[in-house]
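Input record, target 12 of the design panel.
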C-alpha cells in the first residue's frame, strides 16, 4: 500500500479505510437521509 500512496503509512491508510467503512455502514443502516436529487431520477 505504501508504494501506491507515497508519503502515507500503511496504518494511516488502514485507519482511513476503517473510517470510510464505518460511514458506509451508517448510510446503509438508514441513519443518514439520502436526498433525491432531480438529476439522479430516472427519466423514462
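The sequence produced for target 12 reads:
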Amino acid at each position: 500500500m505504501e508504494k501506491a500512496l507515497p508519503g502515507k503509512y500503511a496504518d494511516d491508510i488502514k485507519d482511513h479505510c476503517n473510517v470510510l467503512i464505518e460511514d458506509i455502514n451508517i448510510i446503509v443502516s438508514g441513519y443518514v437521509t439520502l436526498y433525491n436529487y432531480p438529476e439522479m431520477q430516472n427519466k423514462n
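The chain has a mean pLDDT of 83.
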